[in-house]
Each structure stands twice: as structure tokens, then as C-alpha cells.
């Protein structure tokens, strides 16, 4: 599945009323209803776990084995690998790639 980031703010999750980047309910249970917020900062995006304010996701969001915090977030670099969940049997890996 591919998501193109084009807006100032994007939300990824299973809750279709909240997320503009919605994933299917079935087979994607490791992703929370409100799992990730992307916010544009200049030419890059900062990524936040959960709703981006106070509610973290259930299974977490990790970059380089570090959990992304709900309020501070992490500024994404090209080719960053995002990991959702910690169980190797039930996790999702995504790559953040800046288009040329």
C-alpha cells in the first residue's frame, strides 16, 4: 500500500472518520484507529504517534528502535523506516521516501 503525502496534515489509522490515510479494518489490526499524524514542516514531515496530542496508539510507532512520542514527534528523513508494533509475527514496516 502506498500513501502520498501532499497536505499539511495527514492522519493514518483504521478510523475512517478520523484518518484521510485509512487502512482496511480486516488484516490491519496492529494499526490503531488513530495511529499516526504527519505534519509538514517546511519541505519535510514530522511524525507523531497516536492522535498527535495526548492519546498514544496501542501498538506504538518506532523509528530506529525508538518509540515516537505523541507530542514531540520525530522529523522524518528520506528513507526512514517506520515500524508499527513490536511483535515480529504482527508488525508493519513502512518506508518514508521523498520523491525526487
Q: What features would you highlight for this structure?
A:
single chain, 100 residues, mainly beta, five-stranded mixed β-sheet, four-stranded antiparallel β-sheet, globular
- In terms of per-residue confidence, which ranges show pLDDT below 50 for 5 or more consecutive residues? none
Strand order of the largest sheet: 2-1-3-4-7
Instruction: List the secondary-structure elements in sequence, H or E.
Output: EEEEEEEEE
Mean pLDDT: 92
First-to-last CA distance: 20 Å
Shape: globular
Strand content: 35-45%
- Radius of gyration, taken over Cα atoms and rounded to an integer in Å: 12 Å
Count of individual beta strands = 9
Major sheet characteristics: 5 strands, mixed
Residues in helices, as a percent range: under 10%
Number of helices: 0
Helix vs. strand class = mainly beta
Report on this structure.
This protein is mostly beta strands and 100 residues long. The protein is 0% helix and 36% strand. The protein has no helices and nine strands. The protein has strands at residues 9-13, 21-22, 36-41, 44-49, 61-63, 66-67, 74-75, 80-84, 92-96. The strands form two sheets. A five-stranded mixed sheet has the order 2-1-3-4-7, with no helix packed on it. A hairpin with a 2-residue loop joins strand 3 and strand 4. It is globular. The two termini are 20 Å apart.
